[in-house]
Design goal:
Helix content: 25-40%
Oligomer: single chain
CATH class: Alpha Beta
Structural class: alpha/beta
Radius of gyration: 18 Å
CATH topology: Rossmann fold
Shape: globular
Bound molecules: adenosine-5'-diphosphate, magnesium ion
Number of domains: 1
Strand order of the largest sheet: 4-1-2-9-8-3-7-6-5
Largest sheet: 9 strands, mixed
């Protein structure tokens, strides 16, 4: 498998006037092409910090990030859809900001919208979409940039439980079918196991890597994965790793 991202000894210290917060102490891992990776860890341990550094919106303090010339895109939350733009124009906004929307780009996006049950909504506005549909639009908007690696930060945390299950299934299916590499941050162990090939468990802050699990389940459908015999074993191991009282 091809390496698409290598992170070595990543460290991040936030400085303010009086205090220093060590968010990341020492984080190293490798991501291979086509992998779906989840990063789980206690609240405030530094998960979002990793994604901000990877997306270049935050400077690291030290360490190496080797992207092998791959393109990264951050999936924003669905509430970042613009209410006055159609679904299609929302999906094209990233490309517009970069100053280029070719006919090919447009067709690519229209195809994605058609393939993922949004064909009837191409010229509708976000207020006519359900929460789950909005999240699919947010994902297609990110795919429009043709990234090699997608970053997702708690993509279902604003949704109710039922919708969150559906959206997890949709995200997993779309990312696998489009053969993208993904790094998702979540506090939800069930979600991580049901969607990922590999799970990186972080310690509490300052974050280091507590453990890495390769998830070997036979289905790629999150809802079916939950029924598999080994699912609970993974859950219990990760839950133990996350033990906040240790
Ligand atoms: P997580 O996503 O795992 O909940 P974050 O990466 O958001 O955690 O934050 C990790 C730690 O860094 C937290 O203790 C948080 O308070 C601190 N932190 C985050 N952003 C800043 C900032 N801009 N300035 C100072 N401290 C920050
Ligand atoms: Mg966070």
């Amino acid at each position: 498998m091809n390496k698409v991202l290598e992170i070595k000894n990543l460290k991040k210290i936030y400085h303010s006037k009086e205090t220093e917060t060590i968010a990341l102490k020492d984080i190293s891992f490798t991501v291979y092409e086509g992998e779906f990776i989840s990063i789980v860890g206690p609240s405030g341990c530094g998960k979002s910090t990793i994604l901000s550094i990877l997306s270049n919106t935050l400077d690291k303090s030290s360490g190496d990030i080797d992207l092998n010339n791959k393109k990264i895109a951050y999936m924003l939350q669905n509430d970042c859809l613009l209410s006055y733009l159609t679904v299609l124009d929302n999906c094209l906004i990233g490309l517009k900001i970069q100053g280029k929307v070719t006919e090919e780009d447009k067709n690519y996006v229209i195809n994605l919208l058609n393939n993922y049950a949004l064909g009837d909504f191409i010229n509708k506005y976000p207020n006519s979409l359900s929460g789950g549909m909005k999240q699919r639009v947010a994902l297609i908007r990110t795919l429009a940039l043709k990234p090699d690696i997608l970053l997702l930060d708690e993509p279902t945390s604003a949704l109710d439980y039922q919708t969150s299950l559906t959206v997890s299934k949709d995200i997993s299916k779309i990312i696998r079918q489009e053969k993208k590499t993904a790094i998702m941050v979540t506090h939800d162990i069930n979600q991580a196991i049901s969607m990922s090939d590999k799970i990186i468990v972080l310690t509490k802050r300052p974050a280091t890597i507590k453990s890495i699990y390769n998830i070997n389940l036979s289905s790629n459908n999150p809802l079916d994965r939950k029924k598999e015999k080994d699912f609970n074993d993974y859950y219990e191991k990760i839950w133990k790793d996350l033990d906040i009282y240790e």
